Amino acid sequence: MMDWTDRHCRYFHRLLSRRALLYTEMVTAPALVRGGALHLLDHDPAEHPLALQLGGSDPDELADATAMGAQAGYVEVNLNCGCPSDRVQSGCFGAVLMQDPALVARCAEAMIAASPAEVTVKCRIGVDEQDPRVALPRFLDAVAGAGVRRVIVHARKAWLQGLSPRENRDVPPLDYPLVLAMARAYPQLQIVLNGGIDSLDAAEALLAQGIAGVMIGRAAYQRPADILCGADARIFGVPGGLDPVAAVAAMRPYIARHLDRGGRLHAVTRHMLGLFAGRPGARGWRRVLSEGATRPGAGLEVLDAALVQVDPEAGAQRAAALIS
Question: For 189, phi and psi rounded to 5 degrees?
Answer without folding.
Answer: -105, 140
